[in-house]
Amino acid sequence: MELHIRLEGRKGLTEQLYQQLRAGIESGHLAAGTQLPPTRLLAEQLGVSRKTVAEAYSRLTYDNLLSGKVGRGTFIAPRLPVQHNANENVPLAAAESLERWHQRATVLGRRALDAPSRYDFVGGASSKAQFPYDHWRSCLQYALRRSQRHTDRQFSPQGLPELREAIAHHIAYARGVHCTGADVLVCNGAQQALDLIARVLVEPGSKVAMEDPGYPPARQLFLALGAQLQSVPVDGQGLCVEQIADGTRLIYVTPSHQFPLGMPMSEARRQALLARAAELGALVIEDDYDCEFRYQGPAAEALQRLDRHGLVAYVGTFSKTLLPELRLGYAVLPPAVMQAACVAKHLTDWHSPSLQQWALARFIGEGHLNRHIRRCHEVYSARRERILARLDGDLAPWFSAVPASAGFHLSALARPGLDVEQLINLARKVEVGLYSLAPFFSEAPVQPGLLLGFGAIELLDIDPALDRVADTLQSLS
Fold first, then answer.
1. Which residues pair with 399 in a beta bridge?
2. Could you report the per-residue pLDDT of 185-234, keeping only the tens digit for each?
């Protein structure tokens, strides 16, 4: 390590060195645990005597700023954080704005801070054991070679053309989405797609409608932008379209696999939603978050394919299909929205990481994505069937499953009299992670129950976990 030290003149060299090192330590530029150069090496670099450096080190050690470790060297000593007097802080003029953002925290964000249980039915998490790491590594190496040959430093905020074309072909095949690469905007996950769409359409006071229960990060995003949010109830056919208020300009739905309950939106309700959107001139966000995995019956067409008026924005993600760490998603946008969304994307982060885009385009083009989905489909299907068998069997006195044919979570509604929150707390004590449906409700009456994710729990762990849940339920009874 070469320190940035500047000594002037030939007098007071020890003091100069001492003061500069001390300033670097106290400012944090020299972090705790950093190893300093040996006295001989630093003396040679600075052109001073070794005694000068040794004396400076000695004084800093006496001040408890350095610590010597026999046989290893001299290190910056750990320091307690500086304690600021709260009475001296100047209140920020934007304090109220900051407080509003504090209130936007979601249950999903807080859940990420919890330590996972041994048996965890967390929703939205996929199985890393199924991911083809070797194929992905090969695609990343290809991306590095592409980057080495790429001379243009400018990249489109809309995304690399080869990835947009690959996405368009994939979702046309898998979900029946009608689009070309020109209609696709590559984003950092589905959440950024929601943010970009809402940012260009929603102003303070704008009416936005979404399902209740629904996806908390979407709800909090719309509220953060100042939307007048309407929580529209759902029934067995999906969103209750007739309750969407006049003046609504944005409608958020999960029609293929309602989040969190799981039932699909009926064909009649889809047509009614599109008719209501056309009547209002409202854009519909179709969040198709995990519907590549379908287990029974014919796959329902994407709502976007039924759209005849350019009013549906189709949003998808690879974070659930592949890996959460990937953080790549996409939006298929109507022409009226695309240009504004690209401007917003450019102002936000210029573009999504090009290396990962090249790698993902290669991954899709070589067929790895479809093969991965087929492998995961078999795995998730077996896990789903096992959970359903237990819900229809020994757990039936306490729960009933909500009919769902897609995704990698399902919901189970609690029978009357069961205290779901107490069950969750007791299950945590026997190393089983269960999750309540209650946080997903906003204004609609809460339906007590559980969201049971099966993407991250192994098949052989399901019965031992549910045995513990059954024992806990028996004790509650």
1. 414
2. 999 999 999 999 999 999 999 999 999 999 999 999 999 999 999 999 99
* Residue 311 CB partners (closer than 8 Å, separation 6+): 274, 277, 278, 281, 282, 283, 284, 334
SS3 144: helix
Once rounded to an integer, what is the mean pLDDT over residues 371-379? 93
Indicate if the pLDDT at residue 106 is higher than 70: no
Q: pLDDT at residue 401 above 90?
A: yes
Confidence of residue 45 (pLDDT cuts 50, 70, 90): confident
Asked whether 430 and 464 are in contact (CB, 8 A), the reply is: no
Query: What tens digit of pLDDT does each residue of 330-351 get?
Result: 999 999 999 999 999 999 999 9
- If you classify domain 132-366 with CATH, what class do you get? alpha beta
Contact predicate 262/403, CB 8 Å: yes
What CATH number has the domain spanning 107-127+371-476?
A: 3.90.1150.10
User: Over 60: is that where the pLDDT of 113 sits?
Assistant: no
**Residue 258: partners with Cβ closer than 8 Å, 6 or more residues away:** 211, 234, 238, 264, 265
DSSP readout, 176-194? -----GGGEEEESHHHHHH
Helices (H) and strands (E) in the chain, counts: 16, 16
Stretch (H or E) spanning 383: helix 368-392
The phi-psi region of residue 64 (left if phi > 0; otherwise alpha if psi is between -120 and 50; otherwise beta) is: left
Of 3.10.270.10, 1.10.10.10, 2.40.100.10, 2.30.110.70, which CATH number belongs to 13-76?
Answer: 1.10.10.10
Pairs from 151-158 (Cβ < 8 Å, separation ≥ 24):
155/350, 155/351, 155/354, 156/342, 156/351, 157/342, 157/343, 157/345, 157/346, 157/350, 157/351, 158/184, 158/185, 158/186, 158/338, 158/342, 158/345, 158/351
- Domain(s) of CATH 1.10.10.10: residues in the chain: 13-76
CATH 3.90.1150.10 boundaries in the chain: 107-127+371-476
Task: Report the relative pairing of strands 248-253 and 207-212 from DSSP bridges.
Answer: parallel
CA separation, residue 42 to residues 11, 51, 178, 272 (Å):
18, 11, 66, 76
Give the C-alpha separation, 187 to 310, whole Å.
20
**pLDDT tens per residue across span 54-93:** 999 999 998 999 998 888 889 999 876 656 565 677 889 9
Question: How far apart (Å, rounded) are the C-alpha atoms in residues 318 and 329?
Answer: 6
Specify the residue for token string 């210029």: 350
Domain boundaries for CATH 3.40.640.10 within the chain: 132-366
Q: Strand, helix or coil at 291?
A: coil
Residue with tokens 């924005």: 313
Spatial distance between the Cα atoms of 410 and 387, rounded to a whole number of angstroms: 9
Question: Which is nearest to 370 in space by CA: 300, 317, 321?
Answer: 321
